[in-house]
Amino acid sequence: MKKITVSLVCDIKDSFMHGYLPGLKKELEEQGHNVRYYKNIAEIEKGEVAFFLACSTILKEKVLSLHDHNVVIHPSKLPEARGSGVVSWKILEGADKIWVTLFKPTDKIDAGEIYYQDCAVLSGDELCDEIREKQAELSFALIKRFLAGYPHLKPVVQEGKSSFYPKRTPKDSELDINKSLKEQFNLLRTVDNERYPAFFYIHGKRYVLKISKERVHA
What we know:
By secondary structure, the protein is of the alpha/beta class. It folds into 2 domains: 5-165, 3-Layer(aba) Sandwich (Rossmann fold), CATH 3.40.50.170; 170-209, no CATH class. It is 22% helix and 25% strand. The strands form 3 sheets. A 6-stranded mixed sheet has the order 2-1-3-4-6-7, sandwiched between helices. A two-stranded parallel ribbon has the order 5-8. It is elongated. 24% of the residues are buried.
C-alpha cells in the first residue's frame, strides 16, 4: 500500500461522523499514512487524497485543487437517491439495506464517476445509533479499500435512473396519533433522541417521545 497524505473532511458541526472519524484517523496513521482531520473546509491544506464525509459546503475548484484526488462518500447506491437524509428516507420506504458510494465530485450534485459501492444489511430492529454505526463502518471499509488500490483506480460513469431526496428537518420526526406505533416503527428507528426526537400533538400540546432498545443481559 502506498503511504500518502490523506485528508478526512466533515464540516457539519453536529454530524455523527465526528464520533467515528478519530478512530479511522488513528487506524490509517497506524498503516503509515499522514492523516489530517478537518472540521472546516477553509482550513484544508494540500495533500494527495481528500475524503469528504457529511459536508454541507459546496466543493468549489479552489478546494478540489488542493488534492490530487477528491472523493465524496454518499450513503446511497448512486445514481439512485441523490440528495440529503437518504438513509432515513430509504428506511421509511422499508429498505433492508444501506448503501454507500465513493465518487468523484463534479459541479452537479452527487453525479460524479463512481469508485466503489457496497451495502450493509439491516435486520429491521436497529435504531438510529445502530444504523449510524453500520453506515460509518461501511464508509470506512470503502475508504480503506480505495487507499489499498490507490493510485491504480478507474472510476466508472454513473448509469441508470436517478432520484433525489430533500433534506430532512426536525418536523419530519412528527408521529401521527391516528396511526399505530407498529405502523410508524421505521420512523421511530430514524429519529435522534437529542437532535430531532419523535414528537406528536394532542389537545393542542406538543409531546416528545424518546426511544431506546432494552439491553438483555445473559
